[in-house]
Design brief:
The structure is a homodimer of 427-residue chains.
Chain A lengths: L1 E5 L3 H10 L7 E6 L2 H15 L1 H4 L2 E5 L5 H10 L4 E4 L6 H10 L3 E3 L23 H4 L2 H7 L2 E3 L8 H13 E13 L2 E3 L5 E2 L6 H9 L3 E4 L3 E4 L7 E5 L4 E7 L3 H9 L4 E6 L2 H13 L8 E3 L6 E3 L1 H8 L10 E2 L1 E12 L4 E11 H8 L3 H18 L7 E3 L6 H9 L11 E5 L6
Parallel strand pairs in A: 1-2, 1-4, 2-3, 4-5, 5-6, 6-20, 7-14
Antiparallel strand pairs in A: 7-18, 8-9, 8-17, 10-11, 10-14, 12-13, 13-14, 15-16, 18-19, 19-21
Helix pairs in contact in A: 1-14, 4-5, 8-10, 8-15, 14-15
């Protein structure tokens, strides 16, 4: 396996650092629009693991927005797998470039949605991933695999859902992905500051788009942003966090392979963050349409959302000033294999102090990057195999969770949790 | 009297429209950085009042940031009074330009403050107007008058305070300027939108700077932004509005001429607006320090606060879509002239439907522009006279309020209110 990693930002950098400790692949090309960023990732691998390990990595410059450039770089390095670790707006170009180069493809976020033109808060328009699934025939014909949504959420959440479906439930009422954290970022003086741990650009995109929900009787439909607030109790000391519906890939992926009456995604944004996003929307500062602004060099046309992103600390740099844990998981309700009501929360927790110490990566991007590493290892060893455009739940979950939990060096040393909860009286 | 109006934005435009109906002056030069804007103001006067009235106005281009340009334009037109109607960051250059040209000067906001370098929330640094008052000697020596803070707040509020001091109270506990409104702006579809009725740039400046308070025993001191929230009941149907301390000129002006134990300014921002300002501050979007942002034409350095302003509707354009009233006034507590506890609220209310119909100007900018017109008329007729740097409370309030209240054409047809309130048990 020869991997082309596209993007050496927070997640790409963490991915490279994770697989530097594995041996399932032959070579990795770390590419970025900014070559220096790719080189810094490899330099940090050299520092920690030595020149021999670093020799398995090559830096390259790439323009992820151009499918032909992606294909050319992939061909030049005889790449077998293209790993997309950049913003979702580049999904289509990298997806096309990988197929053109005859490589398999993985991403951690799917092609973007477009709201319904007249009924955005009740009906779906173009859904997340629609563009990719429309091209599934081309991938099947070529005998190539596009494994889409293979981060932590989507990704590990979909693996949990498949595991619950295969091993824990005979009938599922709801597959509810629930994400929450108790992360705090401080400035040099020790005061708490506002510093999202993931790209604010992407967070705005997913939180302000109409959330999508799946119901077996109704299909996919949407609601207004921040709908159905719910306090969810997260494990390992994180505790209760206010969660709201958010547009997310799981809702589009799980119903394609798994049988459930309802599929939802709720993000534990917390009240402060929800307030911030509401205000950005109220003021039009979430907009990607440029406005005319005066500058010292004359007028410029800038997208307000880009200015919001530029005003906040870079999520890749806040790791050393952050404390706390982040939790990703799926809350499943229904009937157990014995036919009795059952309710479980399957989850994985990532602790920032540990990821910083072990990988010099903050916990949210590290947890995202962990999962495509595991998936690639299963593909490299032939445990997972397939063609076409497939989600993580199309594959057997058991070997995945076993490889994740097994101690190093056999596995990734990342145990996961199963929280057995008391089912509500009537389901 | 020959007036140079600097700025034909919302307030400048309304000022020109107000004095188009008066005859106390000989000529007005309407100047703006954008000559077309000055010409549009005069064109609208021609449409409403005819060519003869419009002939008393001349348009000119000006760079308000350059004192020499201001002086040159003033000399070219033999100007006797320079009327500053632009953002407060231009106060110093226009103030200097007027003195250089040998003209008197009026403004509606004073030179800007700088927070205390180490104790911003308890001690004052450079205060509003400090820079102007330091130059008072030059104005006195030249025999010229700078009448500073002569809008509605500061301005009419200071006139009310002087009136209360001269005619209603023997001893004053607090001179508390209180500003509130029930304005609502709607989009074309009739939905309420977020659209501040005054420059967001200036609003951020005054609301996020540490509020200043005066106490006779302590002098001037500061607090944290949004301190001492209080629900104040505004008259004429506006009702209760949440008010907080805000940095404002009245607190710096009134104690120089009037005797009061405490001087405060509270702005009826309402909870939503306070939340918006807090969020802008939390995210650094109130900042005037440029950040690097990508644009279609390459990277640009833009000030986040300018992007916020550019993303919101121009306050000068929202008049037709706005309904409601705005109230400016001073709440005075102490002992009446009979020595008994007394509490009054002296106020003026401006109704947007009326100002739009009568002047084609939205009510907040119209109410601001009304007051320098009255002051100039009192200076033109010799009822008010003085030299040096003086606030509105340095002049007799009675003729001002009489001219304001008298029906047109003798006066401005703007009655003011005196709300007698029940004093608290112990003052």
């Amino acid at each position: 396996m020869r991997i082309l990693l596209v993007g050496a930002g927070g997640v790409g950098d963490a991915f490279a650092k994770i697989i530097a400790r594995r041996s399932f692949y032959e070579h990795v090309v770390v590419s970025d629009y900014d070559l220096g960023r790719a080189e810094r990732t490899i330099a940090s691998i050299a520092t920690r693991h030595g020149a021999e390990t670093a020799a398995r990595f090559t830096a390259a410059q790439i323009d992820a927005s151009d499918p032909e450039v992606v294909a050319r770089v992939a061909r030049e390095h005889s790449v077998t797998h293209v790993m997309n670790a950049v913003e979702p707006k580049f999904v289509q170009s990298i997806f096309a470039g990988a197929l053109a180069a005859g490589a398999d493809y993985l991403d951690m976020a799917m092609s973007l949605s477009e709201p319904h033109p007249t009924e955005p808060h009740t009906e779906t328009g173009i859904k997340l991933g629609d563009d990719q699934f429309e091209q599934a025939g081309d991938w099947e014909t070529s005998g190539r695999l596009a494994l889409v949504g293979m981060g932590v959420e989507p990704g590990l959440s979909d693996v949990f859902a498949r595991y619950a479906s295969d091993h824990l439930f005979s009938e599922i009422d709801e597959l509810g992905t629930r994400d929450g954290a108790n992360l705090v970022v401080r400035d040099e003086a020790g005061n708490e500051i506002f510093a999202p741990s993931f790209s604010i650009w992407t967070t705005i995109e997913e939180c302000l788009n109409p959330p999508v929900i799946f119901e077996k009787d109704r299909g996919w439909f949407t609601t207004a942003p921040f709908s159905e607030p719910e306090v969810f109790d997260f494990p390992e000391g994180i505790g209760p966090v206010e969660c709201v519906n958010v547009e997310h890939e799981e809702v589009l992926l799980m119903p394609r392979w798994l049988d459930a009456k309802r599929v939802t995604f709720k993000y534990g944004l917390g009240e402060e963050f929800i307030g911030v996003l509401r205000t950005l929307h109220l003021l039009g500062l979430d907009s990607v349409n440029p406005v005319r602004v005066r500058t010292a060099d004359g007028p410029a046309m800038v997208a307000p959302r880009d200015v919001v992103a530029a005003s906040l600390p870079d999520p890749a740099t806040i790791g050393p000033r952050m404390t706390g844990k982040t939790c990703a998981g799926v809350w499943v309700t229904g009937l157990g294999t014995d036919g009795a009501p059952r309710e479980v929360y399957l989850y994985h927790v990532s602790d920032n102090e540990w990821t910083m110490a072990e990988y010099d990566a903050q916990c949210v991007v590290w947890q995202t990057a962990l999962n495509p590493a595991i998936a690639l290892e299963l593909l490299a060893t032939g445990v997972w195999a397939g063609t076409g455009v497939l989600g993580p739940e199309a594959f057997d979950a058991k070997p995945y969770l076993d490889l994740m939990a097994a101690p190093e060096p056999a596995g990734y040393g990342q145990p996961w949790g199963l929280d057995e909860r008391t089912p509500a009286a009537a389901s």
